[in-house]
Amino acid sequence: MDHKVSDNSKKSIECLYGKIAFPLQKGFRFEDISDIQYIIANGSYSKVYFRNQKQLLVSKNLKFYELKLWDREFMRIHPSTLINFNYIKELDRSEGGSVIMQDGKQLPISRQKRLELEALIRENS
């Protein structure tokens, strides 16, 4: 099987075949995109949280991952947070709103994104 990537390819090499390459000091670490629960901004870095409780601090900002994952099941719910819809356990409207993920982590959601998420839920329920 030939895996050539053309210059005009719509997908970049960082997000290919259901995997994403995270830059490391010595190279790259490949992970299944479906294993990412959420990504939290940490200055010019991002902290990636996986379903198996692994975490990875990477030297790319959140905007980079938002652009890579926008056409998948990810949504930026807050200026500092990108989530995978597949791992949402609960949407809490109290105290400004938050999303509770399957690992129990409570993540803040902006008012506008909460309204967008509620509309999306209503459309698909």
Full CATH superfamily name: LytTr DNA-binding domain
How large is the share of residues in beta strands? Answer: 35-45%
Q: Report the span from N to C terminus.
A: 41 Å
CATH fold type: OB fold (Dihydrolipoamide Acetyltransferase, E2P)
pLDDT average, as an integer? 87
Tell me the domain tally: 1
- What is the top-level CATH class? Mainly Beta
Shape: globular
- Count of discrete alpha- or pi-helical segments spanning 4 or more residues: 2
- Overall structural class, as computed from helix and strand content, comes to alpha+beta
Pfam family, one: LytTR
Domain HTH LytTR-type: 22-123
Protein name: LytTr DNA-binding domain-containing protein
GO molecular function: DNA binding; phosphorelay response regulator activity
Structure description:
This protein is α+β, with helices and mostly antiparallel strands. It has one domain (about 15-125): LytTr DNA-binding domain (OB fold (Dihydrolipoamide Acetyltransferase, E2P)), CATH 2.40.50.1020. It is built from two helices and eleven strands; from the N terminus they run E-E-E-E-E-E-H-E-E-E-E-E-H. The chain has helices at about 60-70, 110-125, and strands at about 15, 20-25, 25-30, 35-40, 45-50, 55-60, 75-80, 80-85, 90, 100, 105-110. The strands form three sheets. A five-stranded antiparallel sheet has the order 6-5-4-8-7, with helices on one face. It has a three-stranded antiparallel sheet with strand order 1-2-3, with no helix packed on it. A hairpin with a 2-residue loop joins strand 4 (about 35-40) and strand 5. The termini are far apart. Mean pLDDT is about 85; it is low at about 1-10. GO terms for molecular function: DNA binding; phosphorelay response regulator activity. Keywords: DNA-binding. This is LytTr DNA-binding domain-containing protein.
